[in-house]
Amino acid sequence: MATWVWILIVIAAVVVVAVIAVVARRRRTAALRQRFGPEYDRTVEAREGRELAEADLRDREKQRAKLDIRPLPEDMRVRFTQEWRDVQERFVDQPSEAVVAADRLVYSVMEKRGYPMGDFDAQASLVSVDHPDVVENYRFAHGIRQRAQAQQALLRYRSLFDELLKAGDGQAGVAARGAPGSIGGQRGTDGSGPGRHADGQDAAGSPDTIS
Question: Distance between CA 160 and CA 164 in Å, rounded?
Answer without folding.
Answer: 6
